[in-house]
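User: what does the whole thing look like in 3D?
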Amino acid sequence: MNPVLVGVLAVVGAPIVGGLLMGMDRRLTARLQGRMGPPILQPFYDILKLAGKRPMACNAFQGISASVYLMTSILGVLMFVLGQDLLVLLFVLALGAVMLILGGFSVKSPYSQLGSQREVLQMLAYEPLLVFMVVAVYLHTGSFAAESVFRLDRPLLLSMPAFLFTQTLVMAIKLHKSPFDVSASHHAHQEIVRGIYTEFSGLQMALIELAHLYELVLLLGFVWSLWHTNWVIGAILALAAYVATILVDNVTARMTWRWLVAYTWTWGAGLAAANLAFIYWTIREPR
Amino acid sequence: MSILSKARARSPWILHFDAGACNGCDIEVLACLTPVYDVERFGMMNIGNPKHADVLLVTGTCNLRNARVLRNLYAQMPEPKAVVAIGACALSGGVFHECYNVLGGVEGIIPVDVWVPGCAPKPEAIIEGAVMAVERMQARAAKAKAKDEGHDG
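Assistant: Here's the predicted 3D structure for the full assembly of 440 residues, as structure tokens:
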């Protein structure tokens, strides 16, 4: 397919798919709590409404940080669908996450400051897992390019089962799901007031919410790529991982940041490292 | 109806401030979130942050200590916004009207759009009040827009 067409489709389609999935999340969460829940299109209403509020910025940097966060999320989706370098993709995502954190730090509100500090700890928790994933891809294909994964003729999951778990973990942390929601909660809107998002309002918040939709699609894309040879199985895997994070979100409470880092660095990084060792010693492909 | 005003009508985020109520009204406000009433059906969410809020629900009497807090919260909400005063105390001071530290209802502190009477009002009445507040907010936003366009032309 024409790469320009793929890129345009991804940039236009990702927020639509992400928004519907996010709406499904809100609905499913409500049902698990014995409520009807909002319409599936609710995330779109929320983003539109936020974009239509009168601007009320604390400083100019907040707008810059929200915009860069959105741009890096779009760029991340684009790089993934066009089969670009996964390592650079991680750096781009990290740049966006750090810009959002700096935006949180740029105001004096203690809630925003606390949320930003905790977002740094969340990054500390999930970044190694993403890097392990890329290293595993490199051991398989001898390349960091996402394209090299798409060219493999057997699914990655068969040799990298632990990465289904770690990618689900990364998704739960990135989406601020319990028990990993130390910086701001996805559904609970009153915990440490809104954490890192406390001081973002109106259009800035709309940009951040839109970026979340792109990020959700990208994270599901990572899970999907574990079984890229068959679209249906890949999609089922991604959806199962997403539903698992929603279920865990609803049956657990927020844990401390110490637990978060300890858990991801032992279970997450431990399993990923064990899987890496397995790949290295058994089925390393000839370069 | 434009897409924006439809989105506004379907996603009013609510900030709840207790200006010294007996907690009767607050229990009824929180009852709106429970499975029985479930205001999230209408896209309403109870958020603890004035910067994300559209509708401010105030319960209880205003006094000398918390009037400043209430003004501050109202000022931090980005336009368009609306205020609902809930319960007898928020309307007029209620049974505390004659107390030495009570300023009376919310109206003297911040502009109120909808008054929901009762001691305490039923959750249905609170939901109706919030919906009416959204309508008032919409009308005001439309008026402000028409005024802006008038100035441009």
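In plain terms: The two ends of chain A are 28 Å apart (CA to CA). Chain A touches chain B at residues 26, 30, 33-39, 42, 44-46, 48-56, 189-190, 193-194, 197-202, 205 (CB under 8 Å).
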